[in-house]
Predict the structure of Probable nicotinate-nucleotide adenylyltransferase.
Amino acid sequence: MARIGLYFGTFNPIHIGHLAIANHMVEFSDLDEVWLIITPQSPFKTKKTLLENHHRYQMVYEATKEYPKLKPSKVEFELPQPNYTINTLVHLEEKYGKRHQFSLIMGEDNLKGFHKWKNYEVILENHDIYVYPRITDDINEHQFKGQSKIHVVDAPIMEVSSTFIRKQHKAGKNIRALLPDAVWKYMDEMNFYR
Ligand SMILES: Nc1ncnc2c1ncn2[C@@H]1O[C@H](COP(=O)(O)OP(=O)(O)OP(=O)(O)O)[C@@H](O)[C@H]1O
Ligand SMILES: O=C(O)c1ccc[n+]([C@@H]2O[C@H](COP(=O)([O-])O)[C@@H](O)[C@H]2O)c1
């Protein structure tokens, strides 16, 4: 059975933080592959400044094409919106349950709000969660400390976000170093976030 890490994100756009996290998880855990799942509509996010699905997919494709263990996924494109992770997990279990064992990957900010996710107890009962450290405004400790299914990895913090990239790019700053080169080229050619 292959062990697959599912890394859900809006990826608007994918940045070097996302890529480093996906690569760290696949290299330093027992995961065989990481699938980057581009979410059409995250439950708690507004659609403002959100690029179309196929553009966000293309950027994830560009970022990962030279990383054989990282795979972009369109699985949520055909599922109802907003995209609740539990629904996607059920869908993937039906499709691949006999061949693959699925874990989740998320940043620490997502773990802090995880108790608000649809059916989070069910997710936690059935899947391991790998958490990448991140600085968040919310200074409270997360309530899942000590939970055996949650693995907070020891890895260097990266202070980069898609919001920062969109904002600074619009303001005319050079944010090229925060994006994989092929992503920067696509974003620039397509005039995104101007
Ligand atoms: N720098 C980072 N460090 C740790 N986790 C991160 C980082 N950037 C993104 N993540 C995690 O990656 C996943 C997908 O993130 P998302 O696509 O929302 O990116 P984002 O940079 O947080 O975007 P935005 O600024 O638009 O909210 C989430 O689980 C998030 O916690
Ligand atoms: O299932 C939920 O209730 C749920 C609530 C919030 C976020 N998520 C997932 O977490 C992923 C990262 O969330 P976000 O909002 O930080 O982009 C996003 O792609 C969603 O699939 C899922």
